[in-house]
Amino acid sequence: MATTPTPSSAPATPFAGALRQVDYWWTLYLRTWKGSVVNSFASPLLYVLAMGVLLGGFIEVAPSELEGATSYLDFVAPGLLASQAMTIAFGETTYPVMGMIKWQRIYFSMIASPLTVSEVLLAQFGFVAARTLLACVVFVAVMAPFGVFASVGGALGALLVQVLVGLAFATPVLAYSAALKDESGFAVVYRLGLIPLFLFSGAFFPVANLGAGLEALAKVTPLWHGVDLTRMLTLGQVDWSMAAVHVAYLVVLAALGWWLAVRQLTRRLVS
Amino acid sequence: MSVRRSRVDAVTDSMIHAAGLRKSFGDFEAVRGIDVDVRRGEAFGFLGPNGAGKSSTMRMIAAVSPVSDGQLRILDRDPATDGPEIRARIGVCPQEDTLDTELNVRDNLIVYGRYFGLPRAEVRERADELLEFVQLTEKAKAKVDDLSGGMKRRLTIARSLINRPELLLLDEPTTGLDPQARHVVWDRLFRLKQQGVTLVLTTHYMDEAEQLTDRLVVMDKGLIVAEGSPLELIATHSTREVAELRFGVASEGDTHEALVGKVEDLADRVEVLPDRLLLYTTDGEETVAKVHERGLEPVATLVRRSTLEDVFLRLTGRTLVD
User: For the ABC transmembrane type-2 domain, which residue ranges apply (chain A) (predicted)?
Assistant: First the structure.
């Protein structure tokens, strides 16, 4: 080489460390994007058609019973959007994390470089956020022709909320995955975590239908906060004080999850 | 032969300095107080069986495993506080492959080089040079899963060189490879050594230690039991030659153990292995001849030079690979 070789260095900031991994996540994404795009285009379309249009066709109730939505399609669309953000976050932080610890051991090669565990996680959560946003952009584009968005601003706001929903799930789930000995623990988190949340957090029916006790329980779940916030934005009926509570809940969960994820992964990798 | 430098150089050129270094996991002490000094340009080895504490030591040197007790300085820095700075300047070839099977061969090098803060164009250029160096240029676009074990190991070595490390750590670089593949790896490592890269490797193969290291320590149960160049260790702890005798146990009606008394005066020392006797002697052929003169009929005999395996057997009473 004619030029003097660049000396390798430690990152000056955690953010700089995370940026060094952009090429990794981008290269990885290029290997898998085709499947994920087809999936993120097809599945919202199928859900909206089946649940919103066909099933929703049987449901004729006053908007007061559908949290203000004028049709079941308008009601269920934001629920499906937030559920998708949750599902992607689970997908990216369960089996792939186990693979990076146990099967391919990618994490070990990463921390053998100047990168630290926090920097590795910062980049990974950045990737999860980008993946969630991209899939939700596709989802929103598919749903828009059905007239489920009261305004463009509401649709854009709903997209940003999905990034927050994604991170609020990704961080604690990754912490859980990093502590698991083997993949059998994932069945538990899917069956007792993801599926009940998906079904009972107000995505498909108003949580008021659950009765007082269960309604209170549903309202402490993270997905309900995500669904309710998304629904306010897509319906254009924002209760700002309640919206602030939702955002605060999700931000606190993401922050707590981040702290746990760094702790658990450090325990696993640095011994 | 190790290059002896002046006292001043030895201090400023210190790549690794460990004193009373310990590592424990709960109640288990993997490394129980070792002193190691490695200078720039040396090829240094940790020889020992599985569980001797070699890998634990290597992980501490790689600044990914906190020191439990004692002193450790890598490139004259403290791994507890300067981990990222140390890791920027060293290369690590782990015992188990940690290649990304989702990426192709060349991309594995490129994304890894980026972790060291190197510009994209430079990393590409280095990746191509390194693929050439480890003879994988034709496999640049191949999937990692399609590579043989030896090729994967060479790719891992190439990856560990992407930041032009001053110190290269190799944990069992050829374990699990067939003899042909091992020789290719050794050849590449030997070239690195000639280029002046400081090599530190662990191995439980004595021939690997003999071929690649200037100086080595023999580890057993978390402690260093001997230190020196391969030749020094053999001269100090063994004889020039070894006569190996294998007796047909059934026909003689005697175990190898029982035969020791009949031959022990013919050698400096006799070791009993499950399948043979080792007679440590200056002239192996002569010793074998004397064995025959006594009417003993071994079914197989072999005369060879002493190796580090014999040193290890002498020091610990056990073989390296069991």
Answer: 35-268
**Is residue B322 a part of any domain in this protein?**
no
Angle CA A22–A25–A31, to nearest 5 = 135
Residue linked to tokens 């926090």: A118
Interhelix angle A240-269/A152-179, rounded to 10 degrees, is 30
pLDDT the model gives residue B26: 92
- pLDDT tens per residue across span B100-159: 998 999 999 999 999 999 999 999 999 999 999 999 999 999 999 999 999 999 999 999
Closest Cβ opposite residue B102 in set A5, A31, A114:
A31
Would you call A114 and B92 a contact, using CB atoms and an 8 Å cutoff?
A: no
Q: Where among B204, B229, B254 does a domain terminate?
A: B229
Rounded to an integer, what is the distance from CA A144 to the centroid of its chain? Answer: 20
- Same domain? For B90 and B166 the reply is yes
Structural domain count of chain B: 2
Domain range spanning residue B244?
239-305
Instruction: Look at residue B293 and tell me if it is in a domain.
Output: yes
- Is the domain of B139 the same as that of B81? yes
Same-domain status, B161 and B56: yes
CATH number for position B278 = 3.30.70.980
> Which chain B residues touch A if contact means CB-CB below 8 Å?
25, 62, 64-66, 83-85, 87-89, 92, 94, 96-103, 107, 110-112, 114-120, 122, 125, 159, 163-164
Of B252, B292, B291, nearest in space to B270 by CA: B291
Q: Could you tell me which chain A residue has the CA closest to the CA of B119? A: A6
Cβ of A6 within 8 Å of Cβ of B87? The answer is: no
> Which residues of chain B does A111 touch, with a Cβ-Cβ cutoff of 8 Å?
64
What value, to the nearest 5°, has the Cα angle with vertex A59 and ends A232 and A64?
40
Residues B43 and B84 in one domain: yes
ipTM above 0.85, yes or no: yes
pLDDT in tens, A148-173: 999 999 999 999 999 999 999 999 99
The DSSP output letter for B102 is T
